[in-house]
Amino acid sequence: MPVQFYIPENQVPLEMHKVRVVQKLNLLPVGERLRAIQEAGNNTFLLQNRDIYMDMITDSGVNAMSDLQVASMSIADDSYAGSETWNRLKAAVKEVFGVDNVLPAHQGRAAENILAEAFVKPGMFTLMNFHFTTTKAHITRLGGEVIELVDKKGLIPQSDDPFKGNFDLKKLRATIKEKTPDKIAFVRVESGTNLIGGQPVSLENMLAVCDICHEFGIPSVLDASLLQDNVYFMKVREPRCKYMDTKSIYQLLASRFDIIYFSARKLGFSRGGFILSTDRKWCDQMMEFVPLYEGFLTYGGMEVRSIEAAAQGLLESLDMDYISQGPEFIEYLVKELDDYGVPVIKPAGGLGCHLNCSEIVPDIPHDQYPAAAVGAAVFIAGGIRGMERGTMSEQREPDGTERFAELELLRLAVPRRVFTLSQIKYCADRVKWVWDNRKLIGGLQWTMEPKVLRFFFGRMKEIGYWQEELVAKFRQDFGDSL
Ligand SMILES: Cc1ncc(COP(=O)(O)O)c(C=O)c1O
Question: Would the pTM of this model clear 0.85, i.e. be above it?
């Protein structure tokens, strides 16, 4: 339960930590912000950190470490094989998940590579609530196909459904029968479903997926990268979890899923990746790929300091004071914007706040990249860097035509334990200003469009001079203020 304030109107999420190390931020004048975004080709990935006030591009590898994490890094035991650091990581995994078998990988997508190498053969299917970019890429690279089975409620932008990441269980059963169990490499549940807005999956739904997998003899896999947010939502939104402690939720999941993997850039507030299983046979099946792609079994391509930090970070993922901070700040930001009328994905999920740009700038067609245009406007307005999750992030069809995204989103990620509430309020304020001035925003066109992963490297320019007009309006409204 959040700490209750005496004066109800003063109620805000209260940080249960204090800041002991700080990093200076720059907030450039608006003209400089215009220069920076234009030099970056209107692609927020190409901005320089020194030009950014709030970096909300991701929650990956940018979460703040605790004092205990920093302290743990100083005792890291650097040896190629048999490091004490690895033993401490295994002990932390045992404490949190109750599991003995652990494999290391240098980050989440490397764990996905190992999983795919071990299970996916050409012509096989992998069923999941929703894909994540790197997961899908590894599966399709090996000739597998991804089928998404998220309940259709998950794709409605504004709803009050508490678990929009849930599987459609009927469809799961039907798809297994249609494709036949021997053709299914594994079923993957993504906790805190990233690409639909960090939306959680209920405990009940996860366990039901495991039951179906066991019935048909198909491996069940949990992507636990965003599990700490998901566990928070289970505790506050799912009646059966209210009186369970966090550890019993993590351990129940580990006892039911065949395999769990995660990015420690998210779960564990550190870097790296891990694969776990209660049953040794699954780890044995994947083990040979670890030295091949990652490194020896006791470091897996990770720097030992990151493994120490992940071990301590995992223990902190049991602590509601820590794991509530991200979702509570996101909920605050979403509510601020929603109350003002700004279209946002609802209910608030983990990971970040998602602006629904199809509704903010409905007149900008998909092929003028509305979400990227709003992203540029938010940067000009506040030095705030978000991530385009719309048509710019799609890849063109083989015949060169555009594949239009279902949702044109700008994601404003909220890295854990990083921002203060005044910064979150500032972000809300500048987004409200963008909303009020949305009529000024125009489209973008490519000046350099790479064939693959264009959202990472591509460059665009404004159509017309709307960005200069936005800057003029900013000066009119804010005078000399930054
Ligand atoms: C759900 C999910 N799975 C896997 C990954 C990949 O992890 P990494 O970035 O550590 O490779 C991510 C990263 O954002 C993610 O959100």
Answer: yes
